[in-house]
Amino acid sequence: MYSYYIKYRPYLSPFNSYPLNWYKYYYNFHRPARNGRSDWFTHRKHLMWPHEFSINPLFVRKGEESVQHLRMPNQGAPTENAYKIVRDEMALDGNPLLNLATFVTTWMEPTADRLHLELANKNLINKEEYPQTAAIEERCIRILADLWHAPRPHHTMGASTTGSSEACMLGGLALKRRWQHARKKQGKPTDRPNIILSSAVHVVWKKFANYWEVEPRYVNITPDHPSLDSKGVLALADENTIGVVTTLGVTYTGLYEPIEKIAKALDELQERTGLDIPIHVDAASGGFVAPFLQPDLVWDFQLARVKSINVSGHKFGLVYPGLGWIIWREAEDLPEDLIFQVSYLGGNIPTFSLSFSRPSAQVLLQYYNFLRLGKDGYYKVQKSSQSVAKYLSKAISEMGPFELFTDGSDLPVFSWRLKEGYTSNWNLYDLSRQLRAFGWQVPAYPLPPDMENITIMRVVVRNDFSMNLAHIFLMNLTQAVSVLDSLDRHKM
């Protein structure tokens, strides 16, 4: 007589809760016994699971009666439990695919995801230990310098950063230090630096002015001048101006500021007064869009007045956060006394950054994108996003309640406002909340000073926002408006 007893305790796979030899159980459970009874009934006493795997859900296992959120527990949890706790809480976040508020990349192709995971353990600052990573970082700097028409792209200075915010800080520091050096050579005081900004500038520049004690001078945007203009710049410029910050892709609206016109006005100012005021271009979003969608636009190092440019690799550079870049037009535009030489990492390594240790994966993913897409690929991705943006903006402009503020002709970003007099019973903040019922995250916010009475909504179209999703969004937007309008009628 054959015996089908299972005489050993099953070993469990580390990847799931099934025994490695599960097929033997299945075979023995269902194979008819010679006495007509299945082995399941005859031998079930031999098939007991370990206690910790005999109860569902996971949280009733020993030691998981409660989770301490504000202090470290004395005893650790099983791997599966810790994973599930974190994963469950993350399920309460919004869906990144439906987040139309963020400029930040939320999707990369599976090959990039694999590369990201494989490279996550490298520290970018360890250039002596990871020389090839350092070489690839340097290649990216040269590629960007060439893309932005630096006179000598293979010899200028640049750095990768944790994002455009850090890159802006570095660009501002270089402006201030260059101004201080020039003033000292002239025997003039250096205690009252100022910087000229648009009132619609990113908050990082307000932080820069505060942290590094530079007076911010704002050119307020108006309905007639919705972005920084040369007239407003010249009205504020003087001998203490360390630079003018222009924006290639305003966060509020997606508009490009007229950088070429501002540079020309500053050239004329220097001819008249001798004041040599440099420009920094905050191209956090536009630096990876304009070279491909608006190649004839003059905004970069083709203008001698432009001394530095920053960009976010994790925005339209199509890389996961956080990654930024800053490039200087010429090596001498970055003062040498801002660069530190570090010897305790195994070599004499120059570093210029506000951070120190950080992941190298994003830098390597940027290089992957350069290789994977090339100029033609970047054009196709950005053009597709812009096509979706312009389709949506046109459709929304044709809806009764709205009028466009921007249409996505610069960045693939558009915005709209509620028509004056359409309703007094709901506003764009109500619409934003109503869209969340469908999962969409669309911000509503007031414009900067002098236009703060205008509230707009903005949509950022990224590379994972397809035309199919655009149609669904329009349907949900129409439904949201209908719900709000019906509430109006109910109140009336």
Mean pLDDT: 88
Helix content: 25-40%
How far apart the termini lie comes to 86 Å
Walk across the major sheet and give the strand order: 1-7-6-5-4-2-3
Rg, rounded, reads 29 Å
Secondary-structure element series? HHHHHEHEHEHEHEHEEEEHEEHEEH
Strand content: 5-15%
Total E-strand runs? 13
Name given to the CATH architecture of the largest domain:
3-Layer(aba) Sandwich
- Main beta sheet: 7 strands, mixed
Q: Specify the CATH class of the largest domain.
A: Alpha Beta
Helical run tally:
13
- CATH homologous group name of the largest domain: Type I PLP-dependent aspartate aminotransferase-like (Major domain)
Shape: globular
Low-confidence stretches: 1-34, 40-47
CATH topology of the largest domain: Aspartate Aminotransferase, domain 2
Q: What is the SS-derived class?
A: alpha/beta
- What number of structural domains do the residues give? 3
